[in-house]
Design brief:
81 residues, 67% helix
């Protein structure tokens, strides 16, 4: 589900991406998404944090203590629209 959500967010932006399109892309029912994430906002949060963790583990982000602020995450978040 998160892969489908990230693809839709990248394609349409966080506001314009629709849960209906995410569930279609993921091949799951709408209630499956809402049972797991409760709302589109929670789905966005889960997708963004997963991408931040991936970028960190891939060495694309430095830990906040080394960066001096949470601004280290901005490039990943801004790419999602």
């Amino acid at each position: 589900m998160l892969d489908a959500a990230v693809e839709e967010f990248q394609r349409f932006g966080l506001r314009r991406a629709r849960v209906e399109d995410i569930v279609r892309r993921a091949g799951v029912g709408r209630m499956t998404v809402y049972r797991k994430y409760e709302s589109k906002d929670r789905l966005i949060q889960a997708a963004v944090w997963r991408e931040v963790r991936r970028a960190y583990h891939d060495g694309q982000l430095v830990p906040p203590a080394e960066a001096g602020s949470v601004g280290c995450c901005w490039p990943v978040v801004s790419d999602m629209g």
